[in-house]
Specification:
The protein has helices spanning 3-13, 20-35, 38-64, 75-102, 106-109, 116-146, 156-182, 189-192, 198-201, 212-218, 222-236, 241-272, 274-277. 75% of the residues lie in helices and 0% in strands. It contains 13 helices and no strands. The mean pLDDT is 83. It has 280 residues and is mostly helical. It is globular.
Length: 280
Amino acid sequence: MTAIESLGRIQQSAPVGFSARRVGAMVLRHLYLLRGSWVRLAELAYWPLMQMVVWGFITQFFMTNSNWVAQATGVLLAAALLWDVLFRSQLGVSMSFLEELWSRNLGNLFVTPLKPYEFGISLLVMSVIRTLLGMLPAALLAIPLYHYSVFTLGLPLIAFFSCLMAMGWSIGLAVSGLVLRYGMGAESLAWVTIFAFAPVSGVYYPISVLPGWLQYVAWATPSAYVFEGMRAVLFQNQFRWDLLAGAVVVDGLYMVAGIWCFLLGFAHARRAGKLLQQGE
């Protein structure tokens, strides 16, 4: 008897009609998955919480500064495009890494002379390519649609772009290290981690809108310096070197932490034999 014939017989002999027990069994299966992964559990509350915090601060700011947008053409568009640079740069590292994981190719790669740092550098290069391919069409389309070009920021745009790319790389490397350490249960960190920085980055409002204690947290992120610098260029026509220096210093600390996290996760995965086991 072939496997198809066996499956047909099983289906014919299966009880017909609705079974609450079978539904309950499937619900229980998914509850076990949630219980076994704190990342999946936290993600349930993560997005509503982020939306509430970000839009709460935006609303609070515009209630007292309704004419703020009119003072600088394209400030919201520039902020949205630069935020996407940060998001795409992090995702560019994480996605290139996850594609190797999903295809169970890590084991094959590391039986070759490829070094972990060479693999890491290739992820950063791919991040640049993915970010440029993703951002250029949007930036160019904004010109005929809204008569605004983000390129009018001039040379400061290169500094903002570089600082945001470096921050995205460090987060992407850290996320890749966590996936190597904790397995595919931590995969969703690739999509959610960057948005934890949105409320304190001051993308659409100044850092001064945040409560005093949260401003200290904000100044510990490179993105806060970048977006404050962007507003200084747009509103005051001034490039703030002090903000650039702050972004570079904090970026350096983030890069050290990201590289350390990636190498630590890789060393753990190699010791535990996970390079050959992990995959979709």
